[in-house]
Amino acid sequence: MGLAMAHQLARRGRQVLVISRRRSEAAGFVAAGMLAPHAEGLQDELLQLGETSLERIPSWVAQIEADSSLPCGLRTSGIVVPFTDAGERDAYPTAALGQSLNRSQLEQEIPDLGEDWTTGLLFEQDGQIDNRRRLMRALERACVSLGVHFLEGAEVSKLAQDSDGALRGVLVRTAEGDEQVFETRAAVLCSGAWSRMLVPELPVFPVKGQMLSLQGPREALKRVIFGPGIYLVPREDGLVVVGATSEREAGFSEGLTPDGQKQLQTGIASLLPVAAGWPPMERWWGFRPCTPDEGPLLGPGPSSGLWLACGHHRNGVLLAAVTAQLLTAAISEEPLSSSDEALLRAFNWSRFAERDQPSTRQP
Predict the structure, then answer these.
(1) 211 pLDDT exceeds 70?
(2) What backbone phi and psi angles, to 5 degrees, belong to 215?
(3) CA dist 218 to 14, 235, 303, Å?
(4) How confident is the model at residue 354 (pLDDT cuts 50, 70, 90)?
(5) What is the DSSP letter of 247?
(6) Centroid of chain to Cα 274
């Protein structure tokens, strides 16, 4: 999210400094890269936000590839969501936006699908991007090519404010332990699951996810499979990304666990039994930045000059394009369409503060 924001701001001629505590913590290096507002079963404004971003991703990726001269690995591979019965399929929130499949049709899309899955939905409009190996690298190079500066291994310890509460700078502790102050009237918080540590008013908390990858035969799997609690995302070279556990009680506990890895293996055996024999390549974990309604925090923050691009939960890669475009336009005071303005309002952080206010309505 931070690189996406930096890239779009730099494209508009803004001077940008990216301050990063630990590069490896970035969710962009952890996620599977699904572009799946329909397969994920998103609803209401979150579905609208996801669909808007999905429409804008091709042009966004084209900008990144032009600025970096590197491919991002975007593929409209389509996503299959399998079900054990038609009732579950028809009750899925986005069922009307997909193509219904019977068992025979499922086998044509996923030849080795587990026998328990009798029906499904195909969302041909959804896809994927190779975020870990391609998109993040391309974004970094695109930012550098546009003059973005990076301060790695540094942690923002405090936001400095004027007497009226407006942002006037950020206090940073560098990797060498030095304290520095960077004066600024505009900053974007893209700190993911750690956002609340800097701005306590934000209801963002971590949801740990463990993942792994398998090396399958090239083109052994042509569609992404999105099952309950597990998904398989095939890359062009046969690598298959498998995820992910959803550990809400883990907090910021790092590391792999036997239970988490066993859960993934059980899911593989159920969803695509043949893949249980494919050799594992990597195992890793990360922290989703979640909010109480699982929607992101976008737009102006609690302090004037502080902007929010955090709390995207499991849809950060999908929503990076629309987040960067909406916020960059707002920061640059560019006119927004009525629909874009409505999306920014819908995901303003204050929606939680408003819900917490006691009712004044008379009985």
Answers:
(1) yes
(2) -100, 100
(3) 43, 9, 51
(4) low
(5) B
(6) 29
pLDDT band at 27; cut points 50, 70, 90: confident
Angle at the Cα of 190 from the Cα atoms of 155 and 61, rounded to 5 degrees: 125
Amino acid occupying residue 143: C
Contact 121, 99 (CB under 8 A): yes
Q: Which residue in the block uniquely carries the two structure tokens 């405090």?
A: 158
Distances (CA, A) of 256 to 58, 242, 248, 285, 316: 34, 14, 15, 7, 22
The strand pair at 99-101 and 119-123 is best described as antiparallel
d(CA 194, CA 178): 22
Q: Does residue 294 contact residue 204 with C-beta atoms inside 8 Å?
A: no
- Report the C-alpha gap between 200 and 359 in whole angstroms: 24
Residue 23's pLDDT is 86
Q: Say if residue 127's pLDDT is above 70.
A: yes
Q: Measure the CA–CA gap between 128 and 281, rounded to whole angstroms.
A: 20
* Residues facing residue 173 across a β-bridge: 155, 179
The whole-number pLDDT of residue 359 equals 39
Q: What is the pLDDT of residues 163-177, one digit of tens each?
A: 998 999 999 999 999
Amino acid identity of residue 299, one-letter, is: G
Residue with tokens 């819900």: 355
Rounded Cα distance, 69 and 145, in Å: 10
Strand positions, DSSP E, 184-275: 187-189, 205-215, 224-227, 230-234, 239-243
Phi, psi of 183 (to 5 degrees): -75, 135
Is-contact 239 216, C-beta < 8 A? yes
Q: What does the alpha-carbon distance between residue 156 and residue 149 come to, in Å, rounded to a whole number? A: 16
Which secondary-structure segment (H or E) carries 35?
A: strand 34-35
Query: Which tokens belong to 300?
Result: 């102006």
- Rounded CA separation 187/170 (Å): 8
What digits encode the pLDDT tens for the residues 133-147?
999 999 999 999 999
| CB atoms inside a 10 Å sphere around CB 17 | 14
Which residue's entry shows tokens 């397969």? 39
66-88 pLDDT tens trace: 999 999 999 999 999 999 999 99
Residue written as tokens 């893949």? Answer: 275
